[in-house]
Amino acid sequence: MKAIVLTLTFALVVIAGIVAAQERRLDLKDGPGRAQVEANCGSCHSLDYVLMNSPFLDRNGWDGSVNKMIKVFGAPINAEDAKAIVEYLNTNYGKT
Ligand code: HEC
Q1: Is the four-CA dihedral 57, 63, 68, 70 of positive or negative sign?
Q2: How far apart are CA 70 and CA 25, in angstroms?
Q3: CA dist., res. 17 & res. 61, Å (int)
Q4: Distance from Cα 17 to the centre of ligand 1, integer Å
Q5: Ligand 1 atom closest to Cα of 57?
Q6: Which ligand 1 atom sits nearest the alpha carbon of residue 40?
Q7: Which residues does ligand 1 sit against, CB inside 6 Å?
Q8: Residue 2 above 80 pLDDT?
Q9: pLDDT per position as a tens digit, 29-85
Q10: How far apart are CA 70 and CA 79, in angstroms?
Q11: Residue 15 pLDDT more than 60?
């Protein structure tokens, strides 16, 4: 009986951890362009890269960074989405 309770408790802790981890992925600020960032910028590395770099990058910086993802690393992002992404990142995570 004790073993069953322990097993169930363990399972609950694991499930809670998974749910918390999934919620963390949606931590970006709300606004136009957020969906494009979530759809395009989390496939190769985590979206934390975006948050970690927000103290350093202004509009030009974000423009360069998004272009680098596309040209150097081959991110499949069309020009329209790229524009929305730079706009969103500068507005919400641009260096002030
Ligand atoms: C095709 C894969 C890929 C996609 C998609 C991608 N990145 Fe990256 N990104 C990389 C790689 C590779 C690095 C550098 C290597 C590393 O440090 O892991 C990187 C690094 C970064 C960095 C760290 C600074 C730098 O320039 O090295 C930032 C900021 C960043 N990416 C932002 C973005 C944003 C914003 C998007 C969405 C527009 C995006 N990434 C989409 C592959 C990608």
Answers
A1: positive
A2: 22
A3: 35
A4: 26
A5: 29
A6: 37
A7: 40-41, 43-45, 49-50, 53, 65-66, 68-69, 73-75, 77, 85
A8: no
A9: 999 999 999 999 999 999 999 889 999 999 999 999 999 999 999 999 999 999 999
A10: 10
A11: no
